[in-house]
Amino acid sequence: MVGDSGGKAPQWGTGVFGAENVARVLAAIVPPFLQIGGVVEPHQVNGQPGAISRDRDDKVLNTLTLDILDGRIQTIHAVINPDKLGHLGPVADAWAVAREANLARRPTD
Known about the structure:
By secondary structure, the chain is α+β, with helices and mostly antiparallel strands. The protein has a single domain (about 1-105), classed as Nuclear Transport Factor 2, Chain: A, CATH 3.10.450. About 25% of the residues lie in helices and about 30% in strands. It has two helices and five strands. The protein has a five-stranded mixed sheet, with no helix packed on it.
């Protein structure tokens, strides 16, 4: 799983490699994102299967595209660079969404 943030949004370093590692990352970030009202919409992205993630205000957070070979996902490409998302509509503040989702992961007392 690789991301393009252009240095303007949070990303996963140089990428996340291996199916188990990708699964762990997705399992860690998706539930808190959904908990704060985010949505992940299945969508064709650049002619490939993928998704558009939006914050609770319906602003675009990122796009995901899936490279599939022989029925298996080979790579997940995420675009989170706000400069590359504006054509899809208003763009979310990815840093603010990440902070809020991270807070949602913490147990409350």
